[in-house]
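To fix ideas, we close by showing one paired sequence and structure record:
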Amino acid sequence: MIKRGLTIFALAMACTGLGGAAAFAQDGGDGAGFYARAYGGISTLNNTTVSVGASSASARFDGGLLVGGAFGYDYEGPWKAEIEYTYRSSDARRLPASFARGGDYASTSIMVNGLYSFGEVGPIRPYVGAGVGFTREVDFDLTGPATPPPGAVGQYSTSGRFAYQGIAGAELPLNDRWSGFGEVRVFAIDNPSPRGSGRTLKADYQTFDLLVGVSRRF
């Protein structure tokens, strides 16, 4: 999965290079300075196999909640750098009764992002970016009762796992301080392996996110 993260980062940087060579109207922006962002949206986990000991099951996930915020610095050019804190949660479905009746797979992450703007394209400013960081917590709560018990029912958690993401978005300035934005993100955690009741749960954590938010310059 680390290789996938490096691939995401390389693709984002390649897009940056192509964008710099494209015929976009690049302007000086709004001047250098700090900014803060708040956002929310939908996070959808990829289908995956969930394993606990010798038991395993295929899990599908409903689109879930994503909320977060970021604080960053605009370098008055194409580049911005920021640190973000984001919460994601998705409900598992279609689990076999012998494994668990349902579940919730959630994470909180702290990421450092680099963003590259292509300048103004009409009223909007498209951009791409990539980020790396770590998880403050990863939780997979499997609810029961399983038939027959105990199945995999239980609460599993871990922290401090490596995480990475790719970002593509567009910003719409509203005035000299406020702007709205929308983003598409691909986010992943490397080998989360949460533990509970002396057991380790194995399940990939890779999401596709759609979010909207507001940004304020200081």
Notes: Residues 66 and 88 are 5 Å apart (CA to CA). The chain has a mean pLDDT of 86. The first strand starts at residue 33 and ends at 45. The first helix runs from residue 2 to 21.
